[in-house]
């Protein structure tokens, strides 16, 4: 039976990463490692304070599972043993990786999927002044930009960025930073400046207004959706869902969530936390069917783990087996 070990790693961010909730200068990740018969599988997660998670709590949850894993807990049983969240994601992805290495078959093949292809990923611009974000947009030179908004001056930011990069595709992430009072004006501004999608404009516990107003831009649920629980109730509020493995609790649930989301008529976005290529690798399999891909975490770091995902401009390439899967 596999033996489970857990470690915490820290990766400096290139500069500072700022969203409506605050700033950070490093990515802190938790890695679950499974070893059996001379082979090892790994999965990476990012505990997120917004969901009541801590690094220490995630490590403890995983360490508490070590005996169960050595006694035979497998990926299927894991889904009912641990709630959706970062800890389950790391272990679920480690199970997938170990399974692929044990059988000598890529995860995509084991899932019956075609080999993954390179995908265009969004590139995220931190929340800043209009002038600073416009400079960053111009310097990025990317075809698809994700703008962190959610504060006073968002319309000025949009105007400055659009003037700086008139040809770029834009998506916006408000990180729950707008209010019912500002919602319609800011959605209208997004439409005016050619924004294609808005992530989570209102707080997850105060988003009912989205069902009552005209939505001129595709509205995507992020904090409002984690796994399949309650997904159907979001149909009148959102047009798309952002699937993140850390929220869903791993690739296993994320694949099921994508399937149910499509059946309910949602467009799919696949996103990430601020993490390394080990976290992006399984998400790239899921992203093959998404309309919007946002897997730029390693591009925002001062250094990535090696080997890592290959990025060529805006293209993110599928992982090699020595990284994951």
Residue share in helix: 25-40%
- Tally of alpha and pi helices: 11
Strand order of the largest sheet: 5-6-7-8-9-10-11-12
Shape: globular
Element-level helix/strand string = EEEHHHHHEEHEHEHEEEHHEHEEE
CATH class (first level) name of the largest domain? Alpha Beta
Provide the structure class.
alpha/beta
Task: Report how far apart the termini are.
Answer: 19 Å
Give the strand tally.
14
Q: What is the count of structural domains?
A: 2
**What's the pLDDT, averaged over the residues?**
97
**Could you name the ranges where pLDDT drops below 50 across 5 or more consecutive residues?**
none
Q: In angstroms, what is the radius of gyration?
A: 19 Å
- CATH level-3 fold name of the largest domain: TIM Barrel
CATH architecture identity of the largest domain = Alpha-Beta Barrel
Description:
With 325 residues, the chain is an alpha/beta fold. It has two domains: 3-107, 2-Layer Sandwich (Enolase-like, domain 1); 119-316, Enolase-like C-terminal domain (TIM Barrel, Alpha-Beta Barrel), CATH 3.20.20.120. It is built from eleven helices and 14 strands. The strands form three sheets. It has an eight-stranded parallel beta sheet. Strands 1-2-3 form a three-stranded antiparallel beta sheet. Strands 4-14-13 form a three-stranded antiparallel beta sheet, with no helix packed on it. Helix 1 (55-64) packs across helix 4 and helix 6 runs parallel beside helix 7. The longest helix has 18 residues, at 86-103. Its cofactor is Mg(2+). It comes from Azorhizobium caulinodans (strain ATCC 43989 / DSM 5975 / JCM 20966 / LMG 6465 / NBRC 14845 / NCIMB 13405 / ORS 571). Belongs to the mandelate racemase/muconate lactonizing enzyme family.
């Amino acid at each position: 039976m596999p033996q489970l070990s857990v470690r915490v790693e820290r990766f400096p961010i290139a500069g500072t990463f700022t969203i409506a909730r605050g700033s950070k200068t490093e990515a802190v990740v938790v890695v679950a490692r499974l070893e059996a018969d001379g082979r090892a599988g790994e999965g990476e997660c990012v505990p997120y304070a917004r969901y009541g998670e801590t690094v220490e709590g995630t490590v403890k949850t995983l360490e508490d599972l070590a005996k169960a894993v050595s006694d035979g807990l497998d990926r299927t049983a894991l889904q009912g043993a641990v709630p959706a969240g970062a800890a389950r994601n790391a272990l679920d992805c480690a199970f997938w990786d170990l399974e692929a290495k044990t059988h000598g078959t890529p995860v995509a093949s084991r899932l019956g999927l075609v080999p993954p292809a390179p995908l265009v990923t969004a590139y995220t611009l931190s929340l800043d002044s209009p002038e600073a974000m416009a400079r960053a947009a111009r310097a990025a030179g990317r075809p698809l930009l994700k703008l962190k908004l959610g504060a006073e001056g968002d319309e000025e930011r949009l105007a400055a960025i659009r003037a700086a990069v008139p040809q770029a595709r834009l998506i916006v992430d408000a990180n729950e930073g707008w209010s019912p009072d500002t919602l319609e004006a800011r959605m209208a501004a997004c439409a005016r400046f050619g924004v294609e999608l808005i992530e989570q404009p209102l707080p997850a516990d105060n988003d009912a207004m989205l069902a009552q107003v005209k939505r001129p831009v595709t509205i995507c649920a992020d904090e409002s959706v984690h796994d399949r629980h309650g997904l159907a109730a979001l149909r009148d509020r959102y047009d798309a869902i952002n699937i993140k493995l850390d929220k869903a609790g791993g690739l296993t649930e994320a694949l099921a969530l994508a399937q149910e989301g499509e059946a309910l008529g949602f467009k799919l976005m696949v996103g990430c936390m601020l993490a390394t290529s080990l976290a992006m690798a399984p998400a790239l399999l899921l992203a093959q069917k998404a309309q919007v891909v946002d897997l730029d975490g390693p591009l925002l770091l001062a250094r990535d783990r090696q080997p890592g995902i290959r990025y060529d401009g805006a293209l993110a390439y599928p992982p090699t087996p020595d990284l994951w899967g």
